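Reviewer 2 asked us to include a model.

Predict the structure of this chain.
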Amino acid sequence: MIAEVLCIGTEILLGDIVNTNGAFIARELAALGIDMYHQSVVGDNPSRLKESLAHALSRADAVLTTGGLGPTYDDLTKKTVADYFGIGMQMHEPSVQKIEALFKKLDRPMTPNNLLQAQVPAGSTVFFNDTGFAPGIAVEQDGKIVIMMPGPPSEMRPMFINHISPYLQRKTGGMIRSKTLYIFGMGESQVEHTLRDLMTSSTNPTVAPYAKQGEVQVRVSAKAQSEQDALSLIDPVVDQVKQILGNVVYGVDIGSMQNALVQTLIEKKLVAATAESCTGGLVSAAITDIPGASAVFAGGICTYTNALKTRLLGVSEDTLTAVGAVSPETADQMAQGVRTLTGADIGVGITGIAGPSGGSDEKPVGLVYIAVSSDAHSEVKKLMLSRGHKDERESIRNLAMLNALYMMLTAVQEA
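Predicted model (structure tokens):
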């Protein structure tokens, strides 16, 4: 099956909202083994929507739309699709009952346009909306399928997972499954060069690298009739990639560096703490983004001034006078100091020059020192994170954060 995604909404075209729906649906279709070659965005205009729909159906078996199912005058998706197929509209009574019951519960008057959300093309398949009003709808005619879903991701995503995905799987009978290896410390070009023979010789499963800022992912994907069959193809290749790349692989399907760190801290029953200068709390924020971090994260200290480095973390005034705040000695004392202050098992200290000002020939913008301190593992690393571009401050800070997380993860693994 070939599918196409058509996201509807003038607000997307204007850039008022970011179209995360397209990326989500693309991943879900790939997992179902459904090919997709095009995605489109069209505004809330019935003639342009009908034109885009016709174009999509000319090259795809199924078109999945998001948006345009609400109660306002510009929510035209259902009517446009019905007109395209030459069918009328009818009320979906379970949706009517849901809408009326909610307004009654809220003790608020219901305007008639709210019931527009319960209208569906005649003879269509209706998917209940578990988190909103407007149901999802599938129209099938002459071997073509149009699936309409709400625009808000909070409604669309659970609808797809709970209702649309099973519907499509019954149509295809196959699926694609993937596992992703997370890599730090080796660039995309080096990863591609190292894995080239495996990548060119593998067809099912396939092996493909994807670059992210500061790290690389390698996705191993297989197509099969069942999940078990797909995984039996994937697992040996995942092991092969890990053997080829070595310890730069820090996890499989781990989600993120900070998730890997938190999960490993939980497994080892250890507690971490952070002392940050140039990153301004980014490492602490990354760690506390992960559910369960409260059990393994003592806290973070953001010390931009020398006075606070000395008062809170015990950094020596002699050190600051002799070698400065941006130095391996200061980073090391920050890491040790935050351990002492919080009683954590592992501490990290980060100091550097994120720019755009403040650099010198001796200490240029992008110079960062990161120290990790634990009973079993102590290390200070010097990093030069500038790439010579303008407006690098955010990039330097994010790269410093990733390096700090990785150094902490290494320390936890060795603890």
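The two ends are 50 Å apart (CA to CA). Residues 257-414 form a domain with the Maf protein fold (CATH 3.90.950.20). We have added this to the supplementary material.
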